[in-house]
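EI: anyone free to look at a 356-residue chain?
SC: sure, send it
EI:
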Amino acid sequence: MKRQDILPSLLKNLLPENLNFPNVDFKDYKVVGLGKAAPAHVKAYFEKIGLKDHLVITKKGVPPLGLNCLFGGHPNYSNDSFENGEKLIEWIKRDKRDILFMITGGASSVVEKLRPEFSKDDVINEIETLLGNTSSIHEINEYRKSISLLKGGGLKTFCEGRRIHTWIVKDVPGDDLTDVGSGPTLENDDTNYNVLCTFEDLQHSVTNLGLEFIAPALNTTLENGLKTLLKRGTSISGGELTVKVTGEGKGGRNSHFVLSAAIDIFERNVLDLSEEEKAKVYIASLATDGDDGNSGAAGGFMDYPSWKVAISLGLEPSKFIQDNDSAGFLERLGCLYLTGITGTNVMDIRLISIPE
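SC: here you go
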């Protein structure tokens, strides 16, 4: 397989239409889907069993796929997110039927009902601060749980004792499933759930390709991630490398990683590569949901010929990094992954191939 095809191939294995849903009879349940990948997973399930009464709440800009959808903010709350919380509670209380929840990444911000002691403006400002200072996903989700009537199992209280079951698309590493969407229907002792797709599935797919997978997932700063990943050989890693945003350019974690790694390898030559060795380097990173920051792309890739074209055009890579405009840089070279919204969400995946 060509190097440029590896990440798209891994992504294909994660798509909801290629999943095996649990063989459980939920014919009397109505369905709630929450998060960025909820529409695609709910639709894939309905294509197998037929349409059911449902409500899906997802990120603004995600295609509704013919479903009954509401749209909220991401990664921060919007006013719609809080309105969605009221509408969800009202929909749940409309009748006493049991409920199947499908929870995917992004559920944390697209729907919310705050504890009465917290104000919308204060919470939005705090989330903005946490997002801007490289706080981890776990830290942000713990804050969301502390201010929410829905997160950390809170949504269960509005179900008033009826049977509920949760299907999870796991976009975070580790064993704490309450980190997915801040755990609206799960507490640590719950057993009424199934995991549809996980980071570990990605790891299994990489192993089947005969490539090295760096585990556990890297959820750290970009700088720490580069120290781990910049080495000779070909490896794939997952997780989210946080970036402090100071500029107003176009990009996200994935394009920022690609350009930062290219600067270290091609400009600073931190691995002491010859020109011949540089010509064999390939760097790629994409968001499995197809939406990398504000870039409009899933991520990007870079090799040495593209780097030399950029330099010949007078582009200054370090300036693009300072402006948080990594996608702007890659776009000029035709080096963006343009997948569109994929319908899944299992963190970011990265490929680095450097001659040994």
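EI: The chain has a mean pLDDT of 92.
SC: 👍
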